[in-house]
Amino acid sequence: MKPTSRPIGYWLRHLHNLIEAQFEAALAEDRLGRRHWQTLHLLHEAARTRAQLDAALAPFGTDGDGAVDDLARRGWVARDDDGRLGLTTAGQTAHAQVAARVEEARARLMSGLTTEQYVETVRVLAVMAGNLESASPTAGAETR
C-alpha cells in the first residue's frame, strides 16, 4: 500500500502515537512524562511565574501542579525570592541529561528529512489548521 493511499488523519494520528511512544521511551529512565520534560525545558530557558508557565503549557493541556510538584520534590525546581520557578543546579544537570535523550529521539524522527522539509511540513499543517479555524469559530477554540 502506498503512503498516499491513506488519508492525512490516519498519518497525523499514527505519527502522534509514535512520537508519544518515542518520548515515553526517552523519558522512562528518569520516570518522567512529557509534561515533566516540557516544564523542565521551559524553566531551563528562563525562570517563570506559575502563570507564565501555565500559559506556555496551555496548548498541551494541563495536569495541575503534578509535574512542577514532582520536579520540586526531586530538587530540580525551586522558587526564587520573587516567586518565580527556576531550575536548581541539580535541575540543570538533569535537563542536560534528558535533553540528550530527547535530541536522540528527535534525530530518529528527522532521519532522511532536511530541515527545509520539516519546516515546510510544519508550515503546511499550520495552514491547514488555520483554514479549519477560520471556517468554524469553535474548531480552533481548544488550541487558543
Question: If you had to describe this structure to a student in words, what would you say it looks like?
Answer:
Helices cover 64% and strands 4% of the residues. The chain is mainly α. It has 2 domains: 3-111, Winged helix-like DNA-binding domain superfamily/Winged helix DNA-binding domain (Arc Repressor Mutant, subunit A); 113-144. The chain has a two-stranded antiparallel sheet. A hairpin with a 5-residue loop joins strand 1 and strand 2 (85-87). The termini are far apart. The model has no long low-confidence stretch (mean pLDDT 90). InterPro entries: WH-like_DNA-bd_sf, WH_DNA-bd_sf.
Task: Assign a percent range to the helix content.
Answer: 55-70%
Give the C-alpha Rg. 18 Å
Q: What is the SS-derived class?
A: mainly alpha
> Oligomeric form of this entry?
single chain
> What overall geometry do the principal axes of the alpha carbons give?
globular
The CATH superfamily title of the largest domain: Winged helix-like DNA-binding domain superfamily/Winged helix DNA-binding domain
Number of helical segments with 4 or more residues: 6
Mean pLDDT: 90
Outline the low-pLDDT stretches: none
Here the CATH topology of the largest domain equals Arc Repressor Mutant, subunit A
Largest sheet: 2 strands, antiparallel
Number of DSSP E strands? 2
- CATH class call of the largest domain: Mainly Alpha
Topology pattern, helix = H, strand = E: HHHHEEHH
Strand order, largest beta sheet: 1-2
Total domain units? 2
